[in-house]
TrEMBL record:
The lineage of its organism: Bacteria, Pseudomonadati, Pseudomonadota, Alphaproteobacteria, Hyphomicrobiales. Signal peptide: none annotated. GO terms for biological process: recombinational repair. Keywords: ATP-binding, Helicase, Hydrolase, Isomerase, Nucleotide-binding. PROSITE patterns: UVRD_HELICASE_ATP_BIND (PS51198), UVRD_HELICASE_CTER (PS51217). This is DNA 3'-5' helicase. It comes from Rhodoblastus acidophilus. Belongs to the helicase family. UvrD subfamily. It catalyses: ATP + H2O = ADP + phosphate + H(+); Couples ATP hydrolysis with the unwinding of duplex DNA by translocating in the 3'-5' direction. Residues 311-570 form the UvrD-like helicase C-terminal domain.
């Protein structure tokens, strides 16, 4: 006799590979909101992709599905998975339907798209440009300067801190005083001045027709406060699905609630144990409180079977997270047995750590494991410095994710400033950067030029009417010509690049490698239909490494992955090394102020450990060499094993000392100190 389960499986064979809980999540109707609590490696991404595919196969209109992911990479991957699953069910028809899944992207990119569409209705100019964090901080700095706040007697908070305070207040929907009291107590005395600064910053943004990251969510959330607009936007989508819900903030939660107030058609997927973005105002309460936001409350489906890691790896990771404070309890289990426990590798110092990793990576490669199946993870981007040197020395190719992004490099920013200014001549920060690339044009001259064209309705014509600044030669005419006569996309980028290259040679020594980056930028640009789309997407979600976005030449080659833990989110490798599992690194000594911060560091270690499928090695160097930050110059500091692996947990690991000291290697111990200085003096006697 057939059970209803097997009937369902027959009815939808493309769901047959899912386990029962996953299938329940994939098939759950749209009448009630759904919360999928998915443990690490339990197939969250897989399940969400099946749910979307199932909706499409059952007849949902893909143009009316809104699918929000944490990164652009995740969204591309999700769409590809949906396509593959739909193909199983629908054959060739699947491509057209998967292509129609156009509302898939990050919260910020969807926000940008909706704002541009609704711009006229909400009093925005549709040509707005988007400032990244650095541009936003620069603009805040200019405003701070104009208000005379940089000249105060007691030092006013720096531009980065001001932006962090502003951003935190906006994203957490909290009053300034509360944000200062909770997260920036040392700035509490500046509340009034900060309010003035933020008000002026908002005015400057509006005058220049720019939005910052936070505005994309803030304006969107404000649109949802207008009942007619909220009804229109919400009515556009039959299904709204959000991945990585644990890393959303209050604003994002209000947007979702505005889109689907009764929760019908709403799906949130996440894992509270992997919430690692509180420093960007992510609110773990969003996921904890989600079910009760609706009547009747959201259905909760919990995925507890882990398909990724072996049992000993999972046991160690479970041990770390079991000591966390508040969470949805899950008992992650796996059928993947293994005799190999994760290793806790004790090395003397960072140089040994680098040697250990390089040696083990090569050993694994000898046994047939590709470099790409191995990853080295670390808490802070600079932790991989010594390892990068060692890998380069041994000719082991690697790609690093996290840390300094491709788009942060000065030359790439220069070209982007060119394109942004071309898109929006009121964007002073971009104009300021661009004009100063010209020989002989400094901040004062640049400011003057921008002032003179600011009020003009045809700013580039006004620019053409100005006399060429001294020393700019033919560069001025070339610039004005390109700005006045756009040639289409992506040739606009090619022209900007050609214009910029002589300046690159003049401004930077290593112009050859920088030119390669610009060539990569051109490759990336070709994937976008317009300048506006290119600028928006790249600003919102910059690629972590050139290879992440550009494809060739690296994609076909084999290389080791180096990544910050934050950038490793959602990924998996056969073999994982975690560097510097010591107090001061995890938890970072910058984040040990509050209990909440420490808890977040614990989750970070958990995320790192749960990336491993078969082999996991946590490395603990016993001493570190710090460079010149102290009055006594360079020195060694001693480190202790991370507090997240207390002694009671050691049973979950194999503790290994490396390099192993062999008896025949130890020479006679030095009994009495040698006076080398006396010896040196003796040489000349
Ligand atoms: N039903 C299943 N049968 C077999 N393998 C599965 C199943 N579901 C998921 N997997 C495998 O489990 C692994 C983890 O899946 P996925 O990446 O979707 O997990 P995740 O929950 O998003 O992980 P995390 O939250 O830790 O990033 C993948 O290798 C996937 O192929």
């Amino acid at each position: 006799m057939q059970t209803s389960d097997s009937l369902a499986r027959e009815g939808a064979p493309y769901l047959a590979k899912l386990n029962d809980a996953q299938r329940r999540a994939a098939e759950f109707g749209a009448e009630r909101p759904l919360l999928v609590i998915a443990g690490a490696g339990s197939g969250k991404t897989n399940t969400l992709a099946h749910r979307v595919a199932h909706l499409i196969v059952k007849g949902a209109d893909p143009r009316r599905i809104l699918l929000m992911t944490f990164s652009r990479r995740a969204s591309t991957e999700m769409r590809e998975r949906v396509r593959r699953i739909c193909k199983e069910a629908l054959g060739r028809r699947a491509d057209v339907l998967a292509d129609a899944l156009t509302w898939a992207g990050t919260f910020h990119s969807i926000g940008a798209r909706l704002l541009r569409e609704q711009a006229v209705t909400i009093g925005l100019d549709p040509d707005f440009t988007i400032h990244d964090r650095e541009d936003s901080a620069d603009l805040l700095n200019l405003v701070r300067h104009d208000l005379g706040l940089s000249k105060t007697e007691k030092r006013f908070p720096g531009k980065g801190t001001c932006l962090a305070i502003y951003s935190r207040a906006v994203n957490s929907e909290a009053p300034l005083d509360q944000v200062l009291g909770k997260a920036f107590p040392w700035c509490a005395g500046w509340a009034d001045a900060l309010k003035k600064l933020f008000a002026a910053y908002v005015e400057a943004k509006q005058a220049q027709n720019v939005l910052d990251y936070d505005d994309l969510l803030l304006y969107w959330a404000q649109m949802m406060q207008e009942s007619a607009l909220a009804a229109e936007l919400g009515g556009r989508f039959d299904h709204v699905l959000v991945d990585e819900y644990q890393d959303t903030n209050r604003l994002q939660a209000s947007i979702l609630l505005g889109l689907k107030p009764d929760g019908r058609g709403l799906t949130a997927v996440g894992d509270d144990a992997q919430s690692i973005y509180a420093f960007r105002a992510a609110e773990v309460r969003n996921i904890l409180d989600f079910p009760a936001k609706f009547t009747p409350p959201a259905e909760i489906v919990t995925l507890e079977r882990n398909y990724r890691s072996t049992q000993p790896i999972l046991e160690a990771a479970n041990g770390v997270i079991a000591r966390a404070q508040e969470r949805f309890t899950k008992n992650l289990w796996t059928e993947r047995t293994s005799a190999e426990r994760p290793a806790l590798v004790v090395v003397r110092e960072e140089a040994d750590q680098a040697n250990f990793v390089a040696e083990k990576v090569l050993e694994a490669r000898e046994t047939g494991m590709r470099l790409k199946d191995q990853a080295v993870l670390f808490r802070a981007a600079h932790h991989s410095g010594p390892l990068e040197v060692e890998l380069t020395r041994r000719n082991i190719p690697f790609v690093k994710f996290g840390g300094l992004k491709f788009l942060d490099s000065a030359h790439v920013k220069d070209v982007l400033a060119f394109l942004r200014f071309a898109q929006n001549p009121r964007d002073r920060i971009s104009g300021f950067r661009l004009l100063q690339l010209l020989p002989g044009v400094g901040p004062a001259a640049a400011r003057k030029i921008l002032d003179r064209i600011a009020a003009d309705s045809a700013p580039f014509d006004a620019l053409a009417a100005l006399p060429a600044p001294a020393k700019t030669g033919a560069h001025w005419g070339g610039l004005v010509e390109i700005l006045r006569a756009p040639s289409g996309w992506p040739s606009d980028l090619a022209r900007a690049k050609t214009w910029y290259e002589p300046h690159l040679d003049r401004l930077h020594e290593d112009s050859v490698t920088r030119k390669i980056d610009l060539a990569q930028l051109e490759v990336i640009a070709a994937n976008y239909p317009s300048r506006e789309k290119f600028l928006t997407e790249l600003t919102l979600d910059p690629p972590d490494a050139t290879s992440a976005e550009a494809g060739p030449p690296l994609r076909d080659e084999d290389y080791l992955i180096l990544s910050t833990i934050h950038s490793a989110k959602g990924q998996e490798w056969k073999s994982v090394f975690v560097l510097n599992v010591v107090d001061g690194c995890i938890p970072s000594d910058l984040a040990t102020g509050t209990r909440a911060e420490i808890e977040e560091e614990r989750r970070l270690l958990y995320v790192a450990m749960t990336r491993a499928k078969d082999h996991l090695r946590l490395i603990t160097p016993q001493r570190f060499f710090t460079h010149g930050q102290h009055s006594r110059g360079d020195r060694h500091v001693y480190a202790a094993r991370s507090r997240f692996i207390p002694t009671e947990m050691l049973g979950s690991f194999d503790t290994i000392g490396w390099p192993a000291v062999r008896a025949d290697e130890t020479g006679p111990a030095l009994q009495t100190p040698v006076d080398l200085r006396a010896r040196m003096r003796g040489m000349w006697k």
